[in-house]
Design goal:
The protein has about 325 residues and is an alpha/beta fold. The chain is built from 11 helices and 9 strands. Helix 8 crosses helix 10.
Length: about 325
């Protein structure tokens, strides 16, 4: 068993739950100190502002449970106050539309991660479901430079192989894969190759391991031991300092949300993405990680496969905290 120490900070670097007071209570039960939440899939600027407004109402209604965090210092303060810190992120660049100036505005509003693609080709890069990977576009290079300048992290979780490797080269700051697993463990289209894992470790980037069943060996039946052994194997490739958790938990979301995630407004037909056409909805979570309250199971599983207490803390949140500290603020001037 792994006991969380008083100074340990646990971070889940991607969730898109159907938010409720119950879920925020489960975050506290599970000792989750910080969650990176998706506030946009295909929404444009104005639509994403409405999502920010909704979060403002949550912060107003539950001031003793959750707060909006802009920095690693804010997360530490939230933990000291007994709250869960909430970080905003986008799973698509649609909130900046075609205006590079919105990168800085979104950073000012609290966004800290932006994916360059969500499965499809975007104005910035190629998604993992495209047949042709054309890499980072002209606009993509400019947007990455602006993201680097202000401290908006480049996230390539849903991006194609070549675009992801190129983003590491183009970006002057480390990039992140907030929610995915090694493709060698399970060949989901957006699980990542060894080349990407090695590239992340060589550029001080990060990967957050996903609990979404379509990313797991065995799907919903994946065991805690198998998941934690996968993490141990990845640590052998990347080192202990570049790995964390990004569960991709979509708790209590209706199946209609899957359709929005995959279809957006770009198609009239059903796009089933990572699911099969006969099971397009959300698959059941593994029984050892159904809610935020189960987060301690992961820490215990990591200890059971041989990680020591310091290594468990790095994976559960310490590595993300170091990454946040270095990358959420303006780029240091040369």
């Amino acid at each position: 068993m792994s006991q969380k120490r008083e100074t340990d900070i646990w971070v889940d670097c991607l969730q898109y739950a159907n938010w409720s007071e119950q879920i925020f209570q489960e975050m506290q039960i599970g000792q989750v100190d910080c969650v990176h939440v998706t506030i946009a899939y295909h929404e444009n600027f104005r639509e994403t502002i409405l999502n920010v407004e909704a979060w403002n109402r949550w912060f107003e209604a539950l001031p003793n449970r959750i707060c909006h965090a802009h920095s690693a210092a804010d997360i530490r303060q939230a933990k000291a106050d007994g709250k869960t810190a909430i970080i905003y992120g986008f799973q698509n660049p649609s909130p900046i539309e075609d205006d590079i100036g919105l990168v800085e505005i979104w950073h000012q509003l609290g966004a800290r991660f932006m994916q360059l693609t969500y499965n499809n080709q975007s104005l910035l890069a190629t998604g993992c479901y495209e047949e042709t990977d054309s890499g980072i576009t002209r606009m993509g290079r400019e947007v990455i430079a602006e993201m680097n300048r202000v401290g908006l992290v480049v996230d390539m979780s849903h991006s194609a192989e070549g675009s992801t490797l190129e983003a590491m080269e183009v970006s002057s700051r480390p990039i992140a894969i907030t929610h995915a697993n090694p493709a060698s463990w399970h060949p989901a289209r957006r699980n990542k190759s060894r080349a990407i894992l090695e590239g992340l470790s060589q550029t001080d980037g990060m990967i957050g391991f996903s609990l979404y069943p379509h990313h797991l060996q065995g799907g919903s039946d994946c065991s805690l031991e198998a998941f934690c052994r996968m993490i141990a194997d990845t640590a052998e490739i990347m080192g202990i300092d570049h790995i964390g958790i990004g569960s991709d938990l979509c708790q209590d979301q209706p199946d209609s949300i899957v359709e929005w995630m995959r279809n957006g407004r770009w198609t009239r037909t059903k796009d089933f993405g990572e699911g099969s056409s006969d099971a397009p909805g959300f698959p059941p979570q593994p029984d050892w990680f159904e809610t935020n309250a189960h987060m301690p199971n992961i820490a215990s599983g990591l200890a059971a496969v041989g990680f020591n207490a310091d290594e468990v803390q790095k994976i559960m949140g310490g590595n993300w905290m170091r990454f946040f500290e270095a990358n959420f603020g303006p780029q240091p001037k040369a």
